[in-house]
Amino acid sequence: MDSGGIHPEAVCSWPSLGERLRERRILSRWRIIRSMEASPLVADLHSHTTVSDGSFTLETLTDAAQRADLDWVAVTDHDRIHPDIEAPVVERQVDSREKPLRLIRGIELRVKAGDQRVDLLGYGVERTDALVAESNRLQQNRKDRAGEIVECVDIN
Questions:
Q1: What distances in angstroms separate CA 138 from CA 83, 105, 118, 133, one per listed residue?
Q2: CA-CA distances (angstroms) from residue 101 to 18, 36, 78, 104, 140?
Q3: E strand residue ranges, 20-127
Q4: Topology of the domain comprising 41-126
Q5: For residues 122 and 140, is the Cβ–Cβ distance under 8 A?
Q6: Contact between residue 30 and residue 6 where contact means Cβ atoms under 8 Å apart
Q7: How many other β-carbons are positioned within 10 Å of the β-carbon of residue 43?
Q8: pLDDT for 93-107, tens place per residue?
Q9: What is residue 121's three-state secondary structure?
Q10: Looking at per-residue confidence, does 96 or 117 come out higher?
Q11: Contact 110, 134 (CB under 8 A)
Q12: pTM over cut 0.70
């Protein structure tokens, strides 16, 4: 299969996380473009709900996706897996549509890559004990930082 001159094993040979992520994005874009030749799809792969800092509940987000005629929506709340998405990919049949809307259970984590911090999006994630523990730790860190900020504002 022609991959536009990109060798899939190159991902393993590059030394830095940033370079590996860039290579994977290039390969993913190629796959999406390739699949659009047969049947175009429309997706939002980075959305937040009120579980983190989004404005929409999951139901409102699903309704908005229907109105926008999206095929796929990845719910990637900050440091959390949405509790109401039961599986890595969930199909929601919307009354007025022929095809179902597919919700992808995801997460957005801020990670260190060398001396930089990057936002890493995970798609189709499983609720493992390790991920739940890390998510809880990150949420507690956010609450602690918020409390420290409030104290600084109260003092000044």
A1: 16, 18, 15, 9
A2: 32, 17, 22, 10, 33
A3: 43-47, 72-75, 89-92, 101-113, 116-123
A4: TIM Barrel (3.20.20)
A5: no
A6: yes
A7: 14
A8: 766 667 788 999 999
A9: strand
A10: 117
A11: no
A12: no
